[in-house]
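Model it.
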Amino acid sequence: MTLDTDMASSVPDANFTIKMLRFATLSDEQQQELLENRQSKITRDQTKSHLKILNEYLNQKNIGKLDDLSDDELPDILFGFYTSVRREDGEMYKLQSLKCIRASINRYTKEKHNLDIIADTRFIKANEMFHAVTVQTNLKQDTSV
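Modeled.
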């Protein structure tokens, strides 16, 4: 038995259906939502919390807001921030916490300012200070155990 042309056109083509389902068409809004949700809620919350610490430092030093700083000002500011950042009780952060704070700042500056505070050569001195602080922190943690 053969199908006539009218009837054949009304029969769904399995390959065509797969191709239609395989590649979705997302609106600009849906694409933006995907980008905004690419990080876990925990990561977003940690980033927000760590940026709050940096902004408290900037406020205490009467420097202004992170988003108002130029890319050339930020290395010197981070240099000072790394040397002075402490927990609310005045104790030094643990090594992993310092690394997380720096990663959060980097995540934010990469996303909002297209600026990588770890890889950009303008941050060499700030990164050297970060490493010096982490060595000191690591030594203190080793002696307190």
